[in-house]
């Protein structure tokens, strides 16, 4: 069984679609600007200075579910944990991470599912502005092949 594709570098057509209990979790990233002009369907309201760039970087969002004993998988980037919070109706907390590369604003969230404790949901926000770390032992593709991807029946 082949799992869903996962993208870390992509364009406005990249999509990951994963679902549980017949309710699909669909995450689509869309660029606010394509080719220097605004794309149809998106309108940006006025925001405070410095907030507009953050809103644009959050548009690139990727989520996938994996069956794993460990919460954090080595995806080739270096992360710093900046928070953790309890989630309502879940016995597992959600952890928040930022990429440690200077100027890179990518964030990731990690949480285990309460319904199936072996499933880890990882959500990435933003696009990396740098290549994989040189000292990374494995690339994401190698790790993705090693883990069992959860695909609902």
Write the layout of secondary structure elements.
Blueprint: E1 15-20, E2 23-28, E3 33-34, E4 37-38, H1 51-57, E5 61-67, E6 79-85, E7 94-99, E8 107-112, E9 119-125, H2 140-146, E10 148-149
Antiparallel strand pairs: 1-2, 3-4, 5-9, 5-10, 6-7, 7-8, 8-9
Biased composition (Polar residues): 19-42
InterPro entries: WRKY_dom, WRKY_dom_sf, WRKY_plant
GO molecular function: DNA-binding transcription factor activity; sequence-specific DNA binding
Describe the structure.
By secondary structure, the protein is mainly β. It has a domain at 62-153: Single Sheet (N-terminal domain of TfIIb). The chain has helices at residues 51-57, 140-146, and strands at 15-20, 23-28, 33-34, 37-38, 61-67, 79-85, 94-99, 107-112, 119-125, 148-149. The strands form three sheets. The protein has a six-stranded antiparallel β-sheet with strand order 6-7-8-9-5-10, with helices on one face. The radius of gyration is 16 Å and the shape is globular. Mean pLDDT is 66; it is low at 1-48. Residues 1-56 are annotated as: Disordered.
């Amino acid at each position: 069984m082949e799992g869903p594709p996962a993208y870390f570098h992509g364009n406005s057509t990249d999509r990951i679609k994963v679902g549980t209990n017949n309710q699909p979790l669909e995450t689509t990233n869309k660029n606010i600007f394509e080719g220097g002009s605004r794309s149809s369907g998106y309108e940006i309201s006025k925001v405070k200075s410095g907030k507009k760039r953050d809103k644009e970087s959050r548009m690139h969002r990727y989520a996938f579910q994996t069956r794993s004993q460990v919460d954090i998988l080595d995806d080739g980037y270096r992360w710093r944990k900046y928070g953790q919070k309890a989630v309502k109706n879940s016995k597992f907390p959600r952890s928040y991470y930022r990429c440690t590369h200077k100027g890179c604003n990518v964030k990731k969230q990690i949480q285990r599912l309460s319904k199936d404790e072996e499933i880890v949901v990882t959500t990435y926000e933003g696009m990396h502005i740098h290549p994989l770390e040189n000292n990374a032992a494995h690339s994401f593709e190698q790790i993705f092949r090693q883990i069992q991807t959860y695909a609902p029946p």
